[in-house]
Structures
1.
Amino acid sequence: MRALLTGASGFVGSHVRTALIDRGAEVRCLVRASSPRKNLEGLDESELVVGDLRDRASIARALDGCDALFHCAADYRLYVREPEEMYASNVEGTRNVLRAASAAGVGKVVYTSSVGALGLRHDGQPADETTPVSIDDMVGHYKRSKYLAERVAEEWVERGLPVVIVNPSTPIGDRDVKPTATGRVILDFLRRKTPAFVDTGLNWVDVRDVALGHLLAAERGRPGDKYILGHRNLSLEEIFRRLERLTGLAAPRVRLPHWIPLAAAAVDTGWARLTGGEPRVPIDAVRLSRYKMYFDPSKAVRELGLPQTPIDEALRRAVEWFWDNGYAERPAGR
């Protein structure tokens, strides 16, 4: 298999690249000129095409000779000053990539969406791929853009393009160079900047399982179907307790009512808009924390064979990677 991979410089994309290479695939990576290069070390010119999701010609060049496409690239931010930039990448960029894949006759396409584009159950039970959802349920521009991008993918399925949609939950592990919003939760804990927590929860999964899930989706997934790539539903408090056991650092014990961080985030985000900076805690992140985003990955486990690596193993790798790469100071004796 010769595959084009978008988003290879990112957290999930870099692990998809590794998984593809381990399976013997030839991998070509489409990256922007401004993409960070840390996760691209070791690439030669034959494996790298500099381009952009908004540049159709660069996508066509990158797809030349490829029989598979893994579209992992996305603008993932919970605060964006110019929302149209996010929609141009996540929605129109997806349209451009899938249009080019159709023109090139690509036989396998995996589109990386997010559980953020799925519905939640009002009774608190884990949601699945069939839980009803509408754009009115989307909080913030990132979730809205991913919801709309899924609709684009479904349009191309109707046109005959064999697109399988995967919805990763909350990946954790090594190589989170940016880091992602979830990585910042771990990193703030390691830097001892987490004095309290709110009552929220997420579905957590090893990023390496997510990467392998992409390959399994290409091999076994049904075009037009969605697969939640997830594992354990855990509260934020439970995650901090696990990090305490792994690192020896004290977990926060104070639980805040949501209105306190919401008010602080509103001020912080407002100030960022005035000054042109970035808020430390975007208001959309706090709004999202009001919901327990619990999901049921059993369809992917059953139909794809998605692995379920223990969460503590993924947390350990994340912690060690942040320490080894100078993101946080390693405590004495660790």
2.
Amino acid sequence: MDLGLKGKSAIVCAASKGLGRGCAEALAAEGVSLTINARSADALEATAQEIRDAYGVDVTAVAADLSTEAGRAALLEAAPNPDILINNCGGPPPGDFREWDRDDWISAVDANMLNPIMLIKATVDGMIERKFGRIINITSSAVKAPIGILGLSNGARAGLTGFVAGLARETVQHNVTINGLLPGPFDTDRLRGTMAGRAEKAGISLEEAAAELASSNPAGRFGTPAEFGHACAFLCSAHSGYITGQNLLLDGGGFPGTL
């Protein structure tokens, strides 16, 4: 299927690896020029060059911390008028809410709620004027099924989800859609870090912890960044203008509900 995206431009946040890179590659395969972001300049530029070589599209790398005003300004200076915005940020650390102080909460809200909202604010009106825009917020399956030890993430990402639910109904008449992608267990560095902690606590090897977690999922495996990216690309496509304000759960069937 031709997704109708050739010649479009996209900002993809946290794109040097993992799910962000999966989205960047899927869009590049459709002929989308990219501005990609991460904090590590070396890893980001390496990814940018690999995508250029593989797909023949323009890729601009902007190393910056998007939780800061200066970081967002640098990204938007490089790509002031994107057709597509992929908001993505690693989640805050797990723990017990009794151990978190106000600074911990503010940091989580800044990174996982306010930063995406600020980027939407900076780009959505241009999309409305051009009569095309696709905004994807990569959040977490915990938005739908909260995970106790991820309280900081549960709260901040749910706040973002609630905010965009209203905005998405205002922008869709202009062919500007806003949707969420909610990943469950995907084969990423963050998942491997979580598994390492689980393995240490249980006194088992990392391989055993990974096999145990994978087997507990109905799919019997972890998702891949590539298949996550393809789902993202479809929601960004010219064919998805009637899909807005939705949260697509990609978890291999892990959530046991019907809705």
